[in-house]
Amino acid sequence: MVALRETLVVPVRDGHVDPRGWRRPLPSVIVGAYLMYAVLIITVLVSAVVVDRTTPVNRFDIARTADLPVALGYWFTMLLTYLASLGLGWAWRIGCWLVLLVVSVVTWLVGVFAVLDGGNLLSAALSLISITVGAILMLVATITGTRGELRWSTTILATLGLAGTQLAPSLISTRASVLGSDALTMVAALLIPVSVPLAVAAGTTFAQVAVNLGVYTFTALRDLTEARIWPVVTGLLAVPVVGLGVSTGLRIGGSATALTIGHMLISIGACWAAMSLAARRGASAPQPLRITQSLADRGMLFGLLLGSWGLLNMVDSLWFTLPLGSGVLADGVLLTGAVIIGVQAIRRADAAAAVLAAAIAVMAAFAGIRILAELPSLSGAVGSAALAVIAVALALPRWGRSGFTDRRWFVLALALLVLLISPYRIYVAEPLESLVGSSQLAVLLIGLVWLLLTEAEFTRRDSPRLPRTPRLLLFLAYAMWAATMTALVAHGSGSMAMALDLGQLAEAGDAVIGYAVAPAVVVGLLAMGEADAVVETAHPEHELVLTAKL
Question: What is the pLDDT of residue 382?
Answer without folding.
Answer: 92
